[in-house]
Every structure is written in structure tokens, then in C-alpha cells.
Amino acid sequence: MPGQRCDPTPEQVPAAVRVHKISGDLAQMDNVDALVNPWNRNYMPRWLLFPGGVSRALKRRTGPGPWKQLARAGVLPVGGCVITDAGHLSEHTKLIHVAGLNLVWRATEATVDASVHTVIRAAVAHQMHRIAMPLIGSGSGGLDRASSLHCIQKALGNYTHGHPIDVLVVEHDDAFDHL
Questions:
Q1: DSSP 130-175
Q2: What is the mean pLDDT of residues 66-92?
Q3: Structural domains of the chain in order of their starting residue, each with its CATH number
């Protein structure tokens, strides 16, 4: 169902997570069930926002459809996510928009941790086996890349059994710099 919310909860869904760190352009990833879009908490009207970085690149590839679905989801808690269609991308790919920033538009270890847990829980619940996510919080969120990667790896390390899932952690290779 497009625009389905996934709010963070204390329980964890166990999964056998295999992490692959790669360099590339997240918006160009294919052969994945979902692309993760680090987003804000959706509390400002969409027309006031100018997506940058990953969100901007994804919006250019997907068209406006997924972003309209996201806007209808309303305000998200930190770490909350919304699964939408992927617009002009493959019909088999979804977008998982996750609220990785706090109210002052900053990322912390706690916001990245909550985001990663919710994304994995949503991916497992939707029987996804391969997702691609950027370094959450390393753009406008203010975290350096090493801190973001450390937080992501730490959060993913909590999952050791169950539904197998491959997580491609994508560090951009300057593909977004010209956008």
C-alpha cells in the first residue's frame, strides 16, 4: 500500500543482515527491493522544502508521485518511515523515506539508530531481501561520514538471525555534487 507508515517501536524484528559498503550513486542503484531516502520529519509544508543530496537525486529520477504519497503521511516521529512507490523507477522497487533528522534538522547517533531499526523492520515486514541506503545524517544532518557509517553498522549489528536481508550502504562518489 503506497504511503504506508512505519513508526519506530521498541521491539526488534530479528533478521540475518549482510552489510555491503559500496561507493556509487544511490539514485542509480537497481536490483534492489527498496532505496532508502533519508528525510525530515515531514512537519513543514512540502512546498517550503527544497530537497538536496540523496532526496534531490531520487526525486529527479522518480518524478513527483512518491513525494505526494510521502506528504500525505503527515508528521513522522524520529526514525519513522513511509514506504511509497518509486515513481518512474522499476515497478518492483519501493522507496523507504525515513525521518533521520530531529526537530532542529540535525542527525545524531540516536536518530540514525532509530532510522536504521525502523527501515530494517519495515523491509522485513514487506519481505524485502535487498535494500540500498545512504549514510543517513551525513548530508544536511551534520554527521561526518565515518560517524554515520559507524552508527549504521552498530544498529545493523543487532540483527543476527531470521529473515535474510542484504543492506547496501552506499557512500556517494561525488555523483550528487553536480546536482
A1: EEEEE-TTSSTT---HHHHHHHHHHHHTT--SSEEEEEEEEEE-ST
A2: 89
A3: 4-172 (3.40.220.10)
79 touches 98 (CB < 8 A): yes
pLDDT above 60 (res 109): yes
Q: Which residues pair with 22 in a beta bridge?
A: 170
The span from the CA of 165 to the CA of 46, in Å, is: 32
Mean pLDDT of the chain: 82
Give the residue from 126, 144, 113, 141 showing the smallest Cα distance to 39: 141
pLDDT digits (tens, 9 = 90+) for 138-171: 887 778 899 999 999 999 887 755 788 999 999 9
| Cβ(113)–Cβ(54) below 8 Å | no
